[in-house]
Amino acid sequence: MSEKLQKVLARAGKGSRREMETVISAGRVSVDGKTAFLGDRVEGNEQIRIDGHQVTLKSKEEDICRVLMYNKPEGEMCTRKDPEGRPTVFDRLPKLEGSRWVAVGRLDINTSGMLLFTTDGELASRLMHPSRKVEREYAVRIFGEVTEAMLQTLRTGVKLEDGPAKFQKITYRGGEGRNHWFHVVLSEGRNREVRRLWESQEVQVSRLIRVRYGDMEMKRQLPLGGWTELPLKEVNYYRKLVDLAPETQSKVRVDEKAMDNAKSRRIRRSVKKHQHRQQQATRRRK
Fold it and tell me: Known catalytic residue: 108?
């Protein structure tokens, strides 16, 4: 049975389905030597190239869906390579052969917290798509006076430059002086949407942390800059959430312990080693 070309490329780990649509539209993909067009379908036995480089295709049966949870620190870019040489969220991830990690959405450079990666471009695309209404929850520290009228406006809706937006839920979490913490919930991931909503009320976001994606929260013992691979049950939670068939295999051992203090310490040591290597590389460049 034929499939859309962008779906096949996403499964091959070349990016999300949306990213592959852009690549195809730019004329960068060929199928059996002919330039491909958006809407083309393939059987899976064709010779497909991106920018002249052959793509190793994977069937649905042989591709294992993997998902990582990453605790992004502030100061990292959500891009594979930064022209200014700044650290990226991909720098610390485990290397893959014949596949690659696809980020499920983005967090801006000044935002920290829960970021998901997967080897399944279709899963990433569905989790990000606004039609799926997958909830994202953020902890937000606000500098400035916040009134009940402002909160009601943010719940009802604000017109931003790219269309109306609102928080589905706002919960006050305490504070003192002019600094106050709120938890807010959205079901889409537009660029800097949380910050822009608050700024529409003339208050400043001084800290922003993503704490939940779907019903799954950031693992409390996962240190900043650390990642952990989700076990089969949690992978299938996300697949079920967006109407994908359950995965049957996992790279995580069945007997592997959940996040505990010992595992957290190992991750912290790994993060420190990576930071040390980055610092040495930076000094050499200078």
Answer: yes
